[in-house]
Each structure stands twice: as structure tokens, then as C-alpha cells.
């Protein structure tokens, strides 16, 4: 009997529009002959299964719903909410409380990786190389001049919790630090300011099951803008995404090894994507994505195909592994 797999999309942040595109991708990537696929929309005002354009309220006690034929039980939740509450540990914590298997990391790990400052400084303690950074919190005073003196220019100003490059600025003039922080504060109550690292930006997708580790070919990102911002990510032709990346085998192997180490340190689950910048042959971690984009043109689907694999096979392997090994 086919399992009911909910593809959970929407969310509370600016990334909801990206999440809806990932839903469309996953509906084509996950094998509908093997699973019953049920889109489930989550917002601050609604939790609903969406079937043939109709919305059926989710019973939050067990994540079931009734579409007029009695209760439908969900066996597995594939989370494709980028940002809150899908990526920051809130939704995974809920699924853990009701014992529903899901596609991503445990709630603690999701919360840690969602906060770039916490994640990067935690991993620094394990020897993972990251950029120097400063954290600014909403409502707290900060020394803009001191930040520039410490990190230098240019530097990057980012929401500490967020993705898809919403609220991110590359700052080259000291007078632009405060406006950039204000911009980032619209996306997150905490802002991370990072020193600039010059190099080649790459991203690495991977997953591990009880039987094997799969690390995909790297994708090199060459932005036509100042950096890989929202426009460059989602506007055709603004950036080049080259898979496999134009790096030496030695550098590729270093990135693969670091990505695998991070996966293990954080005790991750499912498909993740880890972004790096390569400086003089050394990979520096930029951020960890536990619910990476799954649009038709996202990095992970590109890397799956470049690895000679079919998306349906990959998602079946990942979902079945979690279902068979969930506690």
C-alpha cells in the first residue's frame, strides 16, 4: 500500500514564494507511482491539505485531514518551507512531538543551521574554516565604526536567520553599514556582518543513508551582480551555474570531505546543501541549507542529473531510508 507523503510548503517569511516553486519541483521529482503525494500549505493563518484546488484543514493533533471520505493519515512529511517555520526547527519540533517522520534534520540542528552566526561559530570549534563575523541584535546598540575596523571593507551584511539572499548587502563604503543592517533587520532580529572572502563560490549537495553516502558534483556560481543575490538566484541569465565546478580534483575532494564532515558533526538527515567559497585552494564554509531549494532549476536537481542519477530514484532512496530507520 502506498504511503501518504505530504509536501509541506508555504511558511511565514519572504521565502514563501520560493517554497511554492519548490513544491512544483518536488511534485515532479518524487515518484507518484510509489507514494500518494499531498501538498500541504502552511501559513500563519492556515494549515491545509490542497487537493484539486480545494483546501482541507489539517488536524494539528496528528497532522491528518478529512477531504470528505474520513480521516487521511500522513505517513511522511517532506518539508520544503524555506525560512520559518520549516527551516528553523519549529516545524520539525512539532513533527517530532507527534512522531511523524520527516525529510530534514532534528529540530535542534535545524535551529542551529538556520542561524548563520551560531552555526558558523559552532563549526569553527571543530576546525571548519569560516569568515570572521560580528553579530548585531535588534534593539541593541552597536559600534559601526568598530565593526568596519575589525572586518574591513568590503564586507557582507546578512540576516542571521533567513535565506534566498533576502536582506543581504555587500558593503564597500563605511557609511553604508547602518542602512545595510537596517535592511537585514527587516528579515531577522539578528544580523551577521562577515568579512569579505575573495574566491570561487561553490555549493555541494549530499545525503547519507544507512547504506551509503552520496555527494553530488559541485556547482560553481558566477554571479553577474555584485554577489549571488536574489535577482541573480532567480532571474535567468544573471548568474552562471556551472556543474561540475571548474576546480581541480584536489580542491573538489577537499570540499567534499569538509561537507561530509559538517554533515556528520551536525548529525544531519536527508538531502542538504552546503555553500563554500574557495580561497587559495581552501574551502571556507558560507552556510548550511537543511531544506535546500527544489525548483526545477535549483542546485540539487542539477547536481543529481550531473551525477548520472534520476531525481525519482534519489528521493525514493531518501524517503524510504528515513521511513525504515526512524525511531
Major beta-sheet overview = 7 strands, mixed
Q: State the low-pLDDT regions, or none.
A: 227-232
Order of helices and strands: EHEEEEEEHHHEHEEHEEEEHEHEEHH
Number of strands: 17
Form type? globular
Estimate the helix proportion, in percent.
25-40%
- What is the alpha-carbon Rg in Å? 20 Å
Spatial order of the strands forming the largest sheet: 6-5-4-3-2-1-7
State the end-to-end distance.
21 Å
Averaging pLDDT over every residue, what do you get? 92
Q: Classify the secondary structure makeup into a structural class.
A: alpha+beta
β-strand percent reads: 25-35%
Count of helices?
A: 10
Written overview of the protein:
There is one protein chain. Mean pLDDT is 92; it is low at 227-232. This protein starts with a strand and ends with a helix. Strands 6-5-4-3-2-1-7 form a 7-stranded mixed beta sheet, with helices on one face. Strands 12, 13, 14, 15, 16 and 17 form a 6-stranded antiparallel beta sheet that branches. With 327 residues, it is of the alpha+beta class. It has helices at 16-29, 90-97, 107-114, 116-124, 144-151, 177-185, 230-234, 249-265, 299-306, 311-325; strands at 3-10, 35-42, 47-51, 54-59, 64-66, 71-72, 76-79, 133-137, 155-159, 169-171, 190-195, 200-208, 213-215, 219-223, 239-242, 272-279, 282-289. The longest helix has 17 residues, at 249-265.
Amino acid at each position: 500500500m502506498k504511503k501518504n507523503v505530504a509536501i509541506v510548503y508555504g511558511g511565514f517569511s519572504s521565502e514563501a514564494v520560493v517554497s511554492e516553486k519548490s513544491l512544483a519541483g518536488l511534485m515532479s521529482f518524487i515518484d507518484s507511482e510509489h507514494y500518494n503525494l499531498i501538498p500541504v500549505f502552511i501559513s500563519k493563518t492556515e494549515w491545509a491539505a490542497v487537493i484539486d484546488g480545494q483546501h482541507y484543514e489539517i488536524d494539528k493533533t496528528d497532522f491528518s485531514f478529512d477531504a470528505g471520505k474520513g480521516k487521511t493519515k500522513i505517513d511522511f512529511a517532506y518539508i520544503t518551507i524555506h525560512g520559518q517555520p520549516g527551516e528553523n526547527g519549529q516545524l520539525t519540533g512539532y513533527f517530532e512531538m507527534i512522531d511523524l517522520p520527516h525529510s530534514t534534520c532534528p529540530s535542534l540542528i535545524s535551529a542551529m543551521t538556520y542561524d548563520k552566526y551560531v552555526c558558523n561559530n559552532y563549526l569553527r570549534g571543530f576546525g571548519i574554516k569560516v569568515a570572521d563575523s560580528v553579530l548585531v541584535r535588534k534593539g541593541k546598540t552597536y559600534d559601526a565604526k568598530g565593526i568596519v575596523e575589525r572586518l574591513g571593507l568590503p564586507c557582507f551584511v546578512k540576516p542571521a536567520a533567513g535565506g534566498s539572499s533576502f536582506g543581504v548587502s555587500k558593503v564597500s563604503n563605511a557609511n553604508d553599514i547602518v542602512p545595510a543592517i537596517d535592511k537585514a533587520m527587516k528579515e531577522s532580529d539578528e544580523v551577521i556582518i562577515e568579512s569579505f572572502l575573495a574566491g570561487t563560490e561553490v555549493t555541494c549537495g549530499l545525503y547519507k543513508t544507512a547504506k551509503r553516502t552520496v555527494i553530488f558534483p559541485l556547482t560553481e556560481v558566477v554571479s553577474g551582480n555584485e554577489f549571488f543575490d536574489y535577482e541573480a538566484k532567480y532571474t535567468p541569465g544573471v548568474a552562471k551555474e556551472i556543474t561540475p565546478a571548474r576546480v581541480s580534483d584536489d580542491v573538489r575532494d577537499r570540499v567534499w570531505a569538509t561537507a561530509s564532515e559538517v554533515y556528520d558533526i551536525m548529525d544531519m538527515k536527508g538531502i542538504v546543501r552546503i555553500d563554500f567559497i574557495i580561497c587559495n585552494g581552501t574551502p571556507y564554509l558560507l552556510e548550511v541549507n537543511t531544506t535546500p531549494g527544489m525548483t526545477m532549476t535549483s542546485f540539487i536537481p542539477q547536481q543529481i542529473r550531473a551525477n548520472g542519477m534520476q531525481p525519482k530514484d534519489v528521493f525514493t532512496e531518501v524517503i524510504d531510508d528515513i521511513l525504515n530507520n526512524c525511531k
